[in-house]
Every structure is written in C-alpha cells, then in structure tokens.
Design brief:
This protein has 244 residues and is mainly beta. The protein has 2 helices and 16 strands. The relative contact order is 0.24.
C-alpha cells in the first residue's frame, strides 16, 4: 500500500515568525496553569533551538514531540528546559535530560509522509521533579477513545505562537477525533505552530494523544481543520508508561 501523502507543517516553533492562521471561527480560550488547576501539568519545553508544548506525566517526566531534534540521530541524553505554570504568577522551571524518544527520522525531504509522524514523541526527565508542585496528567488508552457518535468530546491545549502565553494556556474546548490510522489520530482541534507536544484530552481529562502536525493540501501554513496526533498508547506505551 502506498503511503498517504499530504503537505505537513510540523506544529512546533523553530525560532522564526509565522503567518499561520485559523481558517473559520476561532473558539480557543485562555485557561490558567496555576498550581491546583487541572491544566497545571502542561508547560513549555525549550530545546534544540525551538519550543514545544509538554506535559508532566508523572513526578519527574515530561512528554513532548521529537521533531525539533531532527538534527540529532538520537536525542537521548540531550538537555532541555521545562517551564510550568506559565502566566500564572507561580512559574516554575527545571532543566532535564531526554531519556526516551520515538526515533522519528523527519528530514525536510520526508516531512510529507504521514506515517513518519507516528514516532514523533520524546520524554524528558527533569532534574527538579516539578510534578510534586504542579501535579501530573492522567493517561488514557485507545480502548477509551470516544466514537463519532459523540463528536465534540476532546480538548486540545498548547502554547501556539499566535497567542499571548502571558494570558495563560490556549485551549480548544470542543473538538473531535475524525479518523484513526496506524500510529496516528486525525482530529479537528485547532493546531498552530507552538502546539506540538500539547495533549489531546478526553472529557475526563485523560491524555489520549499528543499533537504533532497539521495537514494542508496546499502549500499555505494555515490550519484548515485537519490535525495529526500520536496516540498515547504509542508514545507513552512505547516508553513503558502505565495507563491511568
């Protein structure tokens, strides 16, 4: 079977301006990441000349995407920094070390291949276990994925470039899975540069996937309603993380 091919724009920020925009109604809202908030485990990961969104998944480990580290054949052992409680007045941060990665080989010539994005994840272990202060997310499983009979069942959270992170975390409050493929979820959550690594959350607050890219059949860096996410069974399961 031939690979499915679309124009892919990876949803991380590579230290450059972006003109990306939402096509249609933008219903994103700001939410607090202050300690005690259900969104407090979600923060920013800075490393490899970029930033992505990341989520604390236990006391010390942060789950995010690997594609900013594409110049490293194996980013394991490299250092990054995680910033939590952004915009809340209680910001905390810690350096950390990459302890596991999906092994994505996204060279620029291969960014059009959807199948390659299924390995787009990595885990950083923090020097200071910020989960003790901010809490950590609960992981879901593919067995609990909502069906198309319940179309508005997801939330997506992140720190996109087109939003002021000082005002809090950006949340798409009502979006849905639109398809499932091997190692990949298709969804209609607003996906912008900076959102990569951000969690897809079910209505119970479980992380069921991490955002990796948006699809556009043109060459424009515009979200037209199709995004990609790595299922948490793939990302967390491959790293040996237990579900909730």
């Amino acid at each position: 079977m031939r690979p499915i091919v679309f124009a892919l724009f990876l949803a991380s920020t590579i230290s450059c301006p972006s003109n990306a925009a939402i096509f249609g109604i933008d219903d994103r809202e700001y939410v607090s990441t202050a300690p005690g908030s259900p969104y407090s485990p979600i923060g920013l990961v800075k490393g490899f000349g970029a930033y992505t969104t990341g989520t604390l998944i236990n006391r010390c480990d942060v789950l995010t995407v690997e594609h900013p580290a594409e110049k490293w054949r194996d980013p394991t052992g490299e250092r990054v920094t995680f910033f939590g409680a952004i915009g809340s007045g209680h910001q905390r941060w810690s350096d950390g070390t990459i302890i596991a990665a999906g092994g994505i080989s996204l060279k620029r010539s291969d960014r059009r291949n959807i199948q390659s994005t299924g390995s787009d994840w990595m885990i950083a272990r923090l020097d200071d276990c910020l989960g003790d202060k901010l809490g950590w997310a609960r992981l879901g499983t593919s067995e609990a994925w909502p069906t198309e009979n319940d179309p508005r069942h997801l939330q997506e959270a992140g720190f996109p470039m087109d939003r002021d992170r000082k005002l809090g975390l950006s949340l798409d409050p009502a979006c849905a899975i639109r398809g499932v493929a091997d190692r990949m979820l298709f969804h209609d959550c607003a996906t912008m540069p900076g959102n990569s690594g951000g969690p897809l959350l079910d209505r119970e607050g479980h992380v069921i996937g991490i955002v990796t890219a948006l699809i556009n059949p043109t060459d424009e860096d515009v979200f037209i309603g199709i995004g990609l996410a790595v299922p948490i069974d793939v990302a967390g399961g491959a790293a040996g993380l237990p579900p909730y």
